[in-house]
C-alpha cells in the first residue's frame, strides 16, 4: 500500500515536470519564430523618419537626403524664386495641385508654395514620368531647354521640367507634379521627414 502511494506521488512529479519542461521548450521555440516576423533593423531604419538640420543650407541651395531609399530634395528658396511661382501658373499642368496632382501632396502642402513654410521646399526628388532623378537648376536665367527659365528641375532623360515648387510644365512627358512627403518642422532650423505635423488631418 505504501509503495502505491510513493508511485502515485512519483507519477505526479514526473507528469508535472514533463509538462513544465515541455512548456518551457514550446516558449523557447516560439520566441525566435515570433521574432522572425518582426522587420529587420535595416527594414526599420529604411522606413524610419529622417531628421535634418537646415542651418547650413543657404538661400538658393538644395540639400539631398535619403528617406525610404528615396531622394528628398530640401531647398531654401529665395524671395525671387518665390515671387516667380505665381507667374508660372499659365505654363503648368496643375498649378494649384487640385487636379491630376491632388494626391501628390498632403493637405498642409496644398497651397501656392506646396510647403509648410514658403521658403522651404521638401519634396521627393523623383520625376513622375519614369522615375528618374531630375537635376536642380536653381538659377533664374535662360537655359537651352527653356529661354524663360525661372529656376526649378529639369529631367535630362526625357526633358520633363518642373518649377521651384515641383509643379510640372505643360508639353512634357511627366503627367503630374512631383510628390511632397509627410514632414514637419521640429523647430525653426530642423525638419523631420516621414512624420506629419501634429494634428494634421
TrEMBL record:
Catalysed reaction, written as an equation: a quinol + 2 Fe(III)-[cytochrome c](out) = a quinone + 2 Fe(II)-[cytochrome c](out) + 2 H(+)(out)
Q: What is the enzyme's main class?
A: translocase
Q: What is its EC number?
A: 7.1.1.8
Q: Which residues form a coiled coil?
A: none
Name all Rieske domain ranges: 87-192
Task: Report further notes.
Answer: The Rieske protein is a high potential 2Fe-2S protein.
Record's family? Belongs to the Rieske iron-sulfur protein family.
**How is this protein named in the record?**
Ubiquinol-cytochrome c reductase iron-sulfur subunit
Which species? Answer: Dyella mobilis
Amino acid at each position: 500500500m505504501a509503495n502505491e502511494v510513493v508511485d502515485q506521488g512519483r507519477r505526479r512529479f514526473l507528469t508535472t515536470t514533463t509538462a513544465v519542461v515541455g512548456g518551457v521548450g514550446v516558449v523557447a521555440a516560439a520566441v525566435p519564430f515570433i521574432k522572425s516576423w518582426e522587420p529587420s533593423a535595416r527594414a526599420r531604419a529604411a522606413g524610419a523618419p529622417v531628421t535634418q538640420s537646415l542651418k547650413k543650407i543657404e538661400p538658393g541651395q538644395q540639400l539631398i537626403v535619403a528617406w525610404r531609399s528615396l531622394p528628398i530634395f530640401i531647398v531654401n528658396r529665395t524671395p525671387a524664386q518665390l515671387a516667380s511661382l505665381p507667374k508660372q501658373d499659365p505654363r503648368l499642368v496643375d498649378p494649384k495641385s487640385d487636379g491630376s496632382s491632388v494626391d501628390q501632396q498632403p493637405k498642409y502642402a496644398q497651397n501656392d508654395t506646396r510647403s509648410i513654410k514658403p521658403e522651404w521646399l521638401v519634396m521627393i526628388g523623383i520625376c513622375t514620368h519614369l522615375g528618374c532623378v531630375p537635376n536642380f537648376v536653381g538659377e533664374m536665367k535662360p537655359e537651352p531647354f527653356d529661354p524663360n527659365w525661372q529656376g526649378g528641375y529639369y529631367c535630362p532623360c526625357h526633358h520633363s521640367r518642373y518649377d521651384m515648387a515641383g509643379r510640372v510644365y505643360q508639353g512634357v512627358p511627366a503627367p503630374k507634379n512631383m510628390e511632397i512627403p509627410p514632414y514637419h518642422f521640429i523647430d525653426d532650423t530642423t525638419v523631420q521627414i516621414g512624420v506629419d505635423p501634429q494634428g494634421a488631418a
